[in-house]
Amino acid sequence: MLTKRVNILSESITIAITTLAQELKAEGKDILSFSAGEPDFGTPQVIKDAAITAINEDFTKYTAVDGVIALREAIANKLKRDNGLIYAPNQIMVNNGAKHSLFNLFSALIEDGAEVIIPAPYWVTYPELVNYCGGKVVEIQTDDTSNFKITPKQLKNAITDKTRMLVLTTPSNPTGSIYTREELKALGKVLEGTDIVVASDEMYEKLTYEGTFTSCAAVSDDMFQRTVTINGLSKSVAMTGWRFGYMAAANTELIKATKKLQSQSTSNINSITQLAAIAGLNGSADADIAMMKKAFISRRDEAVKLMNEIEGLSVQTPDGAFYLFVNIKKISSDSLTFAKELLDKKLVAVVPGVAFGSEGYFRLSFATDIDTIREGIKRIAEFVESLK
Ligand code: PMP
Ligand code: GLU
What we know:
By secondary structure, the protein is α/β, with parallel strands linked by helices.
C-alpha cells in the first residue's frame, strides 16, 4: 500500500535513540543521554523577546513563501558579514529547519539514479534523502588517520558522468572536523568543468573552536556558482524547536524551484519564528553565542581527556560542533551492539557509528552539563572494563 519511496526511508536514528532515552527516563530510569544533537541551553532572551513582540503585534498571518523580506535581508547581511558571500534576497529561501532545506534541495535536483557523493562518516539524513529521491549514494570513506576529511584524489575517483551533487559538512556532524580554505579550494578545483552542485551544510559554523571557518562558496567564483549554502540557527543559538533554516544559491532558478515546492507543501515557515530569527542573525545574540561556545570548549576538553583515559578507546579533539566520535575498534567491531548494551547495562545513550556510515565508533554529544558528562564517561569506562 505504501509507496516505494516511503518504504525505502528509515527513521532518523539520532532522533529515535533520543526519544527512546526520553521514554526510559520518563519511566523513572536513571538514563544519561548523549544522543541528541541539541544544545542544552535556553534560547537567548533577545530572540524570545522578538517572538513575544511578534505575537503581541499580531504578526501571525501567512507570509511570503520564501520568508519576509526583512528576514532574507538579515540572512544576506549575515552571509556578507560572517562569510564574505554576496547573495541577493531572491537567492535565499527560508525553510522549516536546515533539514527541510536539504529535503527541498534534494527534491529539486536528484532523481533516477543521479549520484550524490557523501563523505562518511556523514550526518544520518543525507543518504536517506538521496534514496527517497531515487538517487544513488556514493560514499567516500574517511577515518581518524585523515582527520575524517576527503582528499581531492578521493573526490576525483568518486566522480562519474552521473554525479549530480557533492555534500560537504563543515564543521562535521559527527566528527567535528573542519575543512581549511586551502582544502576547500583544492576540492573545488576537482569540480571545475563539471556541473556538480555542492550542498554545503554549515550548521555548526558558529561552533568553530580551532582555526577559522570558511564557507565553501567563498573559496572561488567557480565554487560560488555551484554551491548551495545551507545554514540555520538550531545549533548556534539553541533554536532546535523553532524550526528555522535557509539555503542560499547563486542559481535563482533553483531557488525558484524550491519555492514552488514549498508553496505546495508547507508554505511559509512560522511567522513568529521569522521575526525571532532576525534577532538571532543580526548580532544581537552574539554575547550568548560566545557564552555557549566557551562552555562547549571546556566540556569538550574535559570529555576528550576523560575518554582517552579509558583503555581501549580513543578520540581526537574535535575542531568544531559538539560531538566526540570515539574509536572503539580495539573493543568492538559492532557499534550497534555496543550502543545497545551500553544503554541496557549502564543506562547511557550514545549513537552507534554505523548510523553515520562508519563502523567502529560511537558518537557522544557533549551539549550537556559537565556533571552528566563526567558520570556518563565513568559509566562508559565501567562498561568497557566489563567487556574485557
Ligand atoms: N545539518 C546537520 C549537520 C545537522 O546536524 C542538523 C541537525 N539538526 C541539521 C542539518 C538540521 O538542523 P535543523 O533542521 O534543526 O535546522
Ligand atoms: N542533527 C541532530 C543530531 O544529529 C538532531 C537529530 C536529527 O535532526 O536527526 O543528533
